[in-house]
Protein 1
Amino acid sequence: MTGWPPNPHPLTEALREPPSAFQQHLGHRLTGWGPGYARFEMAVTPALMNRHGVPHGGVHATLLDSAMGYAGVFPGEEEGAARPMSQTLSMSVSYLAPAGGVGLMAEGRVTGGGRRTFFTEARLRDSTGTLVATATGVFRIRGHEAPHVAPGSPDL
């Protein structure tokens, strides 16, 4: 049981994709993806701990970055839809509390943007529900253009 909010866009089979080598190495996985939204989760393991016995801040930044980047390139669920990629242009992370519990979850949301550049925000919670970190970011769409969800959309 976790203290995480419900997943508004659970990952469907049509959206599943093989994890990158880095995702496999760290153990974070995409668990929710929809228009202007993405969610990543991971188990906390001893290999992720810093010398203070809590997950390293780089782990937090990785989850936040992944959630924000995927939020802006939702391909839709049409079979064979192009899978655009995103590139982080800038990211700012605020570390709010040490993580506890056995898992971490980041949710990213698009807040604005244009045809090739989008703006995002994300929140990272531990499995007890504590808000551990927040982030904002600016991303560029690479490859095919992705449809954005306008700020203020019901899905944001």
Protein 2
Amino acid sequence: MSQHSPVAATTVSSWTGLLDELYRESWDPGIRRHRSPFVYRGMANANNDLRTSLTRLAGGREIEKLEGHLLRNFRKYAHADSAAGNSLWNWLALAAHHGLPTRMLDWTYSPFVALHFATADLSQYHRDAVIWCVNHGETNRRLPQQLRKELDEEGSNVFSVDMLNEVAQTLEDLESLSKDPFIVFLEPPSLDDRIVTQFALFSLMSTPDQRMDTWLEGHGDVSRRVIIPAGMKWEVRDKLDQAGITERMLFPGLDGLTAWLARYYSPAAAVLADDQKPRVGEQGSEQSPNHDITQKVHPQNDSGNGHADCTEQQTAHQIRIKQPKRHRK
């Protein structure tokens, strides 16, 4: 494994520069089409890392035992209508979808969906945002042989639940495939419309105590970060709204509709007072709680997409906005 160093970051200064950076390396000469090998994760605070909700919940406790307790009790008490069959990976995806702390993180194939989650939280507009870009083709090259063979035989770049189950039926099976940690990208079943509309997929590490960002730091050619300065967030947000990338489209139903309306009609002055408005490139110095709306916004959720209702505390310069329920963690 190569020496660890921070994942490369590029700070953009314009909308066109942002798009160029997100779509960089998208040309596939083999098929002569623009088909990016990257998956994306948008986070409202560029200071946040890729720790999972399970890692944060564990807080130094034995994470393997905690994970087992959570999954066992979820399967025991889950409503019959939510039954996911016998596959562990179905149960894990279902649990993450409904907000259980897991080793999974949410990603999307769409850079525009990632931009939405990086700019949807108005209370974070004084901080730079970040889009994590990970080349899943390169992460696949680091997979154990059995997993690479399954992808090759199926002609796929990511695993379905059934494909992963062909190689590993349990978390212990997955870990036993290699002594070195690795990343698996998994497309979840279409549990609801949100997974479909958000072009969603999960990542999971082979061991629950391995942080994905730490792994990426040791593999410099696999990922990069795109930093969106706080001063650009309104421009990005308004252009996404005009393009139809909104809560109303990404969270079908009344929750998404009300979240979109509350945010769309919020004046900029209600978010930040004049003396708080950042300059382009300025980033908040403090570390906010490790979550952003790319996850389901449960109290103990991953730093990303949310599942439960989350209401920002109203202050003199922040408006009260109820975030929609997220499709996964």
Protein 3
Amino acid sequence: MHTIRSLIVDDEKFSRVSLKKLLKPYSQIEIVDEAADGVQAIEKIEASKPDLVFLDIQMPGLNGFEVLRALTIKPKPQVIFVTAFDQYAVKAFEVNAIDYLLKPIDEARLQQAIGKLNDNGRAIAEEYEKIRQFILHMEQPKYSLPHIPLRRGRRIVLMNPADIHYLRSEQGVTIVVTQSGEYWASYPLAEMEGILDPQIFFRTHRSTIINLNRIKEIVPAQSGVYDVYLNDTARTCVPLSRDRARVLRERYNF
């Protein structure tokens, strides 16, 4: 029987211990590690590359959805969400055929979820895309998001959006420039635009988003295009396209 290397993510120690006890009868499930918060989860999943993750959704800091979106490893692990969501949200899981366990975990439901796991212990691309689309649907814009997970080398940093100067996309990678230097985000620029507060962050160009509080001056360039200079020490200049300039002019009446 194929061994399924598994990792448990839950901020409550009691819940992790309880799930491990429930999993003991399943000899094919090998618990390789556990994590108590979102940042730790990302680090441990990417380090141990498990076949399966039991992923709590409601955690302080980064929730389970944000953990899954931030993962960069390939192939992706299979995921069984663990949730205390209300019945409306659970219905959304069922409609989208996403595996979940409702707290407190029912043994029969656990058996059913494990029985549906792929023999190869890995999520196929179609399944992961289904999960990704489900996450985008479930997560409403959270403009009060207190921290955003950013990366520098092997480090994961929870950044206060107020400390972000601007974001740019380079060859599909989202670079985030902050007071403490450059980081990169796991999310495409378009998704970052949906996460950040639209009253503070503005898309100036298809490849650039700026923090409006960091603008020093806006200088006309040519044919309705502008250069936007930021108030950082590098006096960064970012382009403001003609279409986006029209939107910004309406906001600031210039």
